[in-house]
Amino acid sequence: MKRFVYINDDSCRYSYCGNRISNTKYTLWNFLPKNLWEQFRRFMNQYFLLIACLQLWSCITPVSPATTWGPLIIIFIVSASKEAWDDYNRYLSDKKANERKIWLVKDGIHRQIKAQEIHVGDVVWLHENDEIPCDLVLIGTSDPQGICYVETAALDGETDLKTRIIPTISANLSVEQLGKVKGVVECPNPDNDIRRFDANMRLFLPIIDNEKCPLTINNTLLQSCYLRYTEWACGVAVYTGNETKSGMSRGAAEPKLTAADAIIDKLTIAIFMFQIVVVLVLGYFGNAWKYTQGLKQWYLMYPVEGEAPWYDFSIILLRFELLCSIMIPISIKVTLDLAKGVYAKFIDWDEQMFDWETNTPAHSANTAISEDLGQVEYILSDKTGTLTENKMILKRCCISGTLYGNDNGDALNDVRLVNAISSNDPDVIKFLLVMALCNTVVPIKSNDDTVSYKAQSQDEEALVNAAANLNMMLISKDSSTAEICFNGSKFRYELLDILEFTSDRKRMSVVVKEGQIGKILLLSKGADEALLPRACPGQQIQKYLEAVEMYSQLGLRTLCLGWRDLKESEYKEWSKNFQEASCSLDNREFKIAEVCHSLERDLHILGVTAVEDRLQDGVPETIKLLRNAGINVWMLTGDKQNTAIQIGLLCNLITSEPNSQLLSISGKTEEVILRSLERALLIMKNTSETKDLAFVLDGWALEIILKHSKESFTRLAMLSKTAICCRMTPLQKAQLVAILKSAGYLTLAIGDGGNDVRMIQEANIGVGISGREGLQAARAADYSIGKFKFLKRLILIHGRYSYNRTAFISQYSFYKSLLICFIQILFAFLSGLSGTSLFNSISLMAYNVFYTSLPVMTIIFDKDISETTVMQYPQILLHSQAGRLLNPTTFCGWFGCSLYHALVVFFITICAYSDEKSEMQELSMVALSGCIWLQAFVVTMDTNSFTYPQILLIWGNFVAFYMINLILSAIPSLQLYTIMFHLCSQPSYWISMALTVAVGMGPVVAFRYFKNLYQPSAINILQQIEQSNGSIQASGNLESARANLTNLLTGSRKNRDCYYHPLLSDSAESARTY
Amino acid sequence: MPPPLSLLRPHDVSSGSLAVALYALLHHFPRTFPPPPPASPSGHSKASLMDPLEMQDDSKKSNKPKYSKFTQQELPACKPLLTPAIVISTFLLVGILFVPIGLASLSASQEIVELVHRYDTNCVPLADKVGFIQDTKTDKSCTRTLTVPKHMKNPIQIYYQIGDFYQNHRRYVKSRSDKQLRYKDAAHLTKDCEPEVYGADGAPIVPCGLVAWSLFNDTYTISVNKKAIEVNKKDIAWQSDKNKKFGSDVYPRNFQNGNLIGGAKLNESIPLSEQEDLIVWMRTAALPTFRKLYGRIETDIMENDQLTVVIQNNYNTYSFGGSKALVLSTTSWIGGKNNFIGVAYLTVGGFCLFLALFFVVLYMIKPRTLGDPSFLSWNRCTLDYPN
């Protein structure tokens, strides 16, 4: 399917959608039905709706329908307004984008219109720094070469500038002609592939040219990119609105469900089953009672002729169903949502996760999954920009055999190098010149005459910056000349040719002509294996090989620099060949490579540069801590294996030989790869736990493994705590996440660039580093943090606390609902199994909504052990990881507790309030007070640390219970009238309450105490340690531990400087070629 | 004191609005708590160190979250642990408190003189009890003589006790109209009164419903040592019910004139608010065995006095096998005679003392150091990883 876009032609402009962007989920009209539909897709909501509907049938309802409708409507309104608010914000941002002013050219006239009014075929005129409103085919720019620069960060997350070029067919159009141009663009139907645009174009005006001109992605300007450093550019709109490439790749992310949520859902279903059993049993006995006893009770006046038996039977059944419906807490969703909202806010507010450098606080975009953070089992991390700073700096270099920067680790401040420059050492000058000139960096002059550089490759930028720091400053550059400022004097160089970098050649060169002398130079840089073999015969390259080896062991990225004088004649001849090759139609790339090859020979090797991609602050400590916490950390990178392994060593991901072993899975053919996989699996299985095993594989191996033996790989993945996967494509990263996820692990993916987005979205938790590579990852992620090191706080502090708190809140919600429900069931046996509710409607509703919801919310302030202790004993995370606090066993504990408490409350109530005191309203209020007293003590028992909001809420709620009921007791029309006054004036009421608490809590306290002392859990022990040691010693320990760690790190680094453990013990097949 | 609005930061409002409200509230809460423990070394101190640096940048507007103890979850907290000292002393304290209270309750309960006389079996012929009770023509008076075991101080409460009567049955408990009882014009509000709604003439019954219809109608005439004494039937109902729940201008109408006669009839010339027996009856009991106040005797009755009670045994508990009893009881601060509280308190108190002792002994036999890191699972080499 193709689409034909007629440029500047009104006749077809309305056949495609306009440029109105809409990311909203709802419209004003479909909001209510659609939102209702969404909400009632949840099992719980359906259940409550059913209950609420049943309650409208007055024949069976034990209490007023308001008890369910009220909370249900509140829940609905809360979630609906949240949705509406989010959608409204989306609408606002869409509106802003849609109403942006855009210049349009039509018949030579420039007009300003709103972005949403652009149609396919319009010619859009953009100025510098404009955001591109829709997908355009570039037809003209201010640059005489037809080049413009775009920043594509919003699209693919890459922050460097991309060059876009106009198609040859429109190269000769003048500005006036551009305004009137007519033609047709034949392009595929909209898709979401931002790397592909296979189209062609024909222009009708001003010249009838029937030749089709092919278009590629390089001729396009895509929506949401920015035009940079180009005065103006204009293009034809081909895709508009939601049909643009970026619009098509936007997808609504599926809402994520946490592991805790899944357990809560399972528990809910279990309770639901239990409820059905209870209802069936009660219903059966209820009917039995009715026919054996009930008909004899003349005062009940049962009709002599009953209705159909099935009707009768189901009536009592349904009554019990309604009576027991409170077993599933209606408030749990709202309570949890609120709590999760607060957890998310705590993350946003956390000052210790604020990144000073980039001025970014941590942010949780997804407020629903905080507790999953506390259960993370696998972390899959990107390397560049996530573990490293993605800020390349030249750290060392080797110039004609002299190693600079070895002493202080910083070549730029090496006195010898500075001296060599000031003494005009020719080799050093040449070296700097290559650094400054042999690249594709674009210098940008800002208003105050400082120069900054925009580069496609961070390495090049590092080299140019280093050269500038060493007084060799590239100050301007256009397509033909470059200007260099050295020691204050300017030199012009004519750029004759650029021999581009390709991944096959692994090198690039430029041919320049010195401005004054007219000497022609070939400047080359490239990988050692690509450049050193091309050194001129006789030059000693051994020292360079050694330097490269040493640098790469330090985890530095190396490049060799070389140069050669060209004779005028030689260049002329070559230039001719080069032109020819460039113009050849078939096999062009190969031919160009051949020609370049012929020039890049007999190089005079100048030296080696070593660029450091520095590890982010605190990365090794963080990884060590996370691994101690039982989290397996994998590194997935697009980078080379060597660099990846070195970075892995530096950041504690893998340790050197005796303690760990690195298994390489690689090979040239499929069989070799699969065999090495099997071998790795075998070794992995047979090695003791204490030895750290890690495996390394690259993208190609992964592809083959996934095709042929996914199962063995999954088994390997489950066994391996560490893995380094290099040369990964974004898709492969996501595949790895999916494999771990399908094995039932909770995965966290962390990355910073556009290539990590898929993995971030695939993982249970996606964390984005809002760093140098743009915000795309951060935008797609559930959490965004400024630095990798904040991950430990995110997981160990926020995740763990959130999990603990959610575990309590959810189970407590069931506890309190079960408590009151059990009392109702027990009462059923005293009321002839007729389904009378002991509690009145107001009490029931308030019990769920106020009396028990507020105290439980206090747990969001609770900390079982202090942050310092958690950091000191990260192993404690195992508790939440294994789900020790929320699982069927713990739930059974809560279930038993609520049953016990219900028995206590019920029997104390009916014994203390028997005979003349057994008035219905009073008895019900006594039972309710018993529940309130007990729940306050239960919350207190399970609170580990009391802060004033907690004390305030728990006991304030308690007081509020009495206040509310005293007020209700003053309203004559209520059943409650005067009841509370009666009760509060009776000593026996207070005595019963104290008894209830003592009997209810005594065994709990005794049991806890016993367990705490004689079978303590790790948390108990840590609490005790905290208590006995005090915080001072604890922090002291931490300080010394930190010092230790730093020593270790620096020490090991020093060690590695002089002596290197070959890490790849299994390296028979490892592709380490130097 | 409502927090000023400026405290609510607009960008916070989206999801955690409650949190924000809490935040605002807590910010304004007076700090009455003791000073916080020293903050963690990496925490606030670092922030304050770097603050000046941040100041210069302030023109660029820092995104740094505002520091407060609440947002950083650093509110001062106390962390009580279940240490032996705390637990043992708690149990000790509870035991020491509960035993005397239990003794006091028990003695109060024991001092109450209670006379329970079940008469339903004795006041009917053995054969065809139901037929007897349902026959409106026969004389159902029945004289019972009781001996008072102990001196009874006035006021002596007279209760009737019915067993196995489900006043809490769903069908029964709902069958009333509170509006009708209260307001003169609400006679037609009989929605809930099924199945006892309309009289023979089709007009609504006042008071309608099963509860009123089944009003207890046994009567007692009591004489001490052959001398009739007055039973005060005034003020046996709650004052609040008389004032607010039952209308002083609502008169019974159509009551008990249908085919089926349930219980007592009402004098149609007395307003509902004065029909205290009805008011007492309408306070439905939550348990199937219950006592309701019949009246009071305001003279003392001496030990070994002979009580003669003439019972009009009208009320039918025979068809469902329920019991009826007459109860005379004195009162005390604890209410009626009920040993439960006293016994329960003594048991719990004793048990707490026992537990305290047990824990002490246990602690002496098997002392444990609290917070011994060697007990940590990962320090014992048995790494308990999940799965």
TrEMBL record, chain A:
InterPro entries given in the database record: ATPase_P-typ_cyto_dom_N, ATPase_P-typ_P_site, ATPase_P-typ_TM_dom_sf, ATPase_P-typ_transduc_dom_A_sf, ATPase_P-type_domA, HAD-like_sf, HAD_sf, P-type_ATPase_IV
UniProt topology in membrane: Multi-pass membrane protein
Reaction(s) catalysed (UniProt annotation): ATP + H2O + phospholipidSide 1 = ADP + phosphate + phospholipidSide 2
GO cellular component terms attached to this protein's record: plasma membrane
Signal peptide interval: none
Protein name: Phospholipid-transporting ATPase
Domain P-type ATPase N-terminal as annotated: residue spans: 5-69
Phylogenetic placement of the source organism: Eukaryota, Viridiplantae, Streptophyta, Embryophyta, Tracheophyta
Binding site for ATP: 382-384, 460, 501, 525, 557, 637-639, 727, 733, 755-756
Automatic annotation (TrEMBL), chain B:
One GO CC term, this protein: plasma membrane
InterPro entries: CDC50/LEM3_fam (IPR005045)
Superkingdom of origin organism: Eukaryota
Keyword field contains Transmembrane: yes
Keyword annotations of the record: Membrane, Transmembrane, Transmembrane helix
Transmembrane spans: 85-108, 343-365
Subcellular location: Membrane
KW Transferase (keyword) present: no
Recorded family membership: Belongs to the CDC50/LEM3 family.
Protein name (Swiss-Prot/TrEMBL): ALA-interacting subunit
Source species of the chain: Miscanthus lutarioriparius
